[in-house]
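Morning. Coffee machine broken again, so started the prediction first thing and wrote up yesterday's gels while waiting. Chain of 312 residues, entered below exactly as on the submission form.
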Amino acid sequence: MQFIKKDINIDFVGKIRFAAILSCILVLISAGAIIKNGGLKYGIDFAGGTLIQIKFSEHRTTDEIRKATKQLGVEEASVQPFGEVHDNEYLINISKTVSDLEGLSDKIGDSFVKTFGKDSFEIRRVGMVGPKVGKDLREKGFMAVVCSLIGMLVYIWWRFEFRFGVGAIVALAHDVIITLGAITLTNRAIDLPIIAAILTVVGYSVNDTIIVCDRIRENRRKMVKKDLKDIINSSINNTLGRTIITSFTTLLVVITLFIFGGGVIHDFAFTLLIGIFVGTYSSIFIASPLLMVWEKLLHDKKHPVNSRGKAS
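Came back before lunch.
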């Protein structure tokens, strides 16, 4: 089945200026959101503390739940809905850990029985992570992302050329920043599943980029008399059908997980959803067209303009 005509010829490189403006706006919005938020918001995996998942038999407001936790002497507790609205399920995040709150599950149960009545709720899980463990996980998660980017650069440099690697890394950094911005704007916390999703996005995006780079290398041998702009455009158009089909089928799965997967993997699916959109866009409009910028910079260095405006 063929969705894209063989003779299609979209001028992707010609739209590099528009793409650059759009990407700069998205990156600035993402960076601004992270800075305004005081940095990334970390979940219990990285920040440490105690997480309680509780389900009520009827609807309760977050203020009611927060007041109930204050009876335990816990002032800094964040309460947020979990899953669908009609599930009446909530997550309570407390900055204190098990060393501060021994027997927390029983204390929460006793306090909530007094406030909401017996058999009106069910404590589904209590998870605790110490601050040292959280810090260690945070550092390792950050290093995992950085090492993956460096590894991609080295591989593409070895497999193709250094300039291909630079374009791919710029595109990957672009994808990660915008994805983190979307996570921050939607008030989601960074935890281990989200780090796993970001690493998945990095692999997905670089796979698209490598396919385009490989086609560019092939077309440079075949289209010797063509300009680099025409070669890049031709290469992106040649792989466009594969890119659209792959992205579409992947998105179908991710959207299904996002809608029907439940609260446990909701943030993971959301991160993948944003990352696949941005990764597909960057593979077409960022990574490959950056070769034109690289080529121009090298040409300007080799042929500097003298005071009369002529190349020396």
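Strands lie at 49-56, 77-81, 89-94, 121-129. Going to sketch it on the whiteboard this afternoon.
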